[in-house]
Write a structure and sequence with these properties.
The structure is a single chain. By secondary structure, this protein is mainly α. It has 2 domains: 99 residues, no CATH class; 161 residues. The chain is built from 10 helices and no strands. The longest helix is centred in the C-terminal third of the chain and has 40 residues.
């Protein structure tokens, strides 16, 4: 039994890294309007096709020492980082949910959040091609997650989209300029579809805390001219808050309630 659990754990991690490799394609190509299916993987510097044995998640980066085999151009550390992060996500969900529909559902949800986060970091956009279908797809949470109900899904979408829309509208009304993009609104609606109203409120609170800390750190590291132009994407922090809810949200909420008593 122990050996089987170890085997499934290893396979979960490997499966996650393989999906992470695909997410790298999505992150790189989707903002540029390129197909995520063709052409096959190639070096972005010299366009040389990458053979499958040089395209193994994490391992190939280490073997090639972070450089293209053909032109020696450096390979971004982001590639193995995304693969590792997705592998850890799959492993963590197996430990929490086992081999269940809920684990598969939340892995798909987390994988989309990883792609959204890195695209938002690079381009300050959240593609509608991910968030809008995501709202529909993750509305099936009531099918895969035992504690979710269809009414929770509906209220989660309305709360997720409505709360940030109200914040964005109020900011624009007071400051006469846009402070939050529509992508964040659609992202929180997608998160609401997957986690319900409670997940939306938890995500918004923790995402704001993480965003504030991240913003302070970014401002501290930036130069004086960069501080004026700094734009901190909110998507990664919302994604982090959503996954924290999936893994530890209920226990954190219970701890907070007990703390207030």
């Amino acid at each position: 039994m122990v050996q089987l659990s170890i085997f499934i754990s290893v396979m979960s991690f490997i499966f996650g890294t393989c999906i992470g490799s695909f997410l790298n394609v999505v992150i790189y190509r989707m903002p540029e309007g390129q197909s995520i299916v063709s052409p096959p993987s190639h070096c972005p510097a010299c366009n040389h096709p990458i053979a499958f044995y040089f395209n193994l998640p994490i391992i190939s980066f280490l073997i090639l020492k972070g450089k293209c085999k053909f032109c020696k151009a450096p390979i971004s550390i982001r590639y193995p980082l995304v693969e590792l992060l997705t592998g850890v996500l799959a492993l963590g969900l197996f430990f929490k949910f086992g081999l269940t529909p809920a684990a598969l559902f939340y892995f798909t949800f987390g994988a989309v959040l990883i792609a959204i986060s890195f695209i938002d970091l690079d381009y300050q956009i959240i593609p509608d091609k991910l968030s809008l279908p995501g709202i529909i797809i993750f509305s099936t949470s009531c099918v895969f997650v035992p504690q979710m109900r269809f009414v929770s899904v509906i209220w989660g979408i309305l709360a997720g989209g409505g709360v940030l829309y109200l914040v964005a509208f109020s900011y624009y009304y007071l400051r006469k300029r846009q402070g939050m993009g529509g992508g964040d609104i659609k992202l929180l609606a997608m998160i609401g579809a997957a986690t319900g109203v409670k997940g939306v409120l938890f995500t918004l609170f923790t995402g704001s805390v993480f965003g504030t800390l991240g913003g302070v750190a970014a401002m501290a590291l930036a130069g004086k001219s960069e501080k004026r132009q700094a734009k901190i994407p909110f998507g990664p922090f919302l994604s982090l808050g959503a996954m924290l809810y999936v893994f530890r949200g209920e226990s954190i909420i219970r701890w907070y309630i007990d703390f207030l008593k």
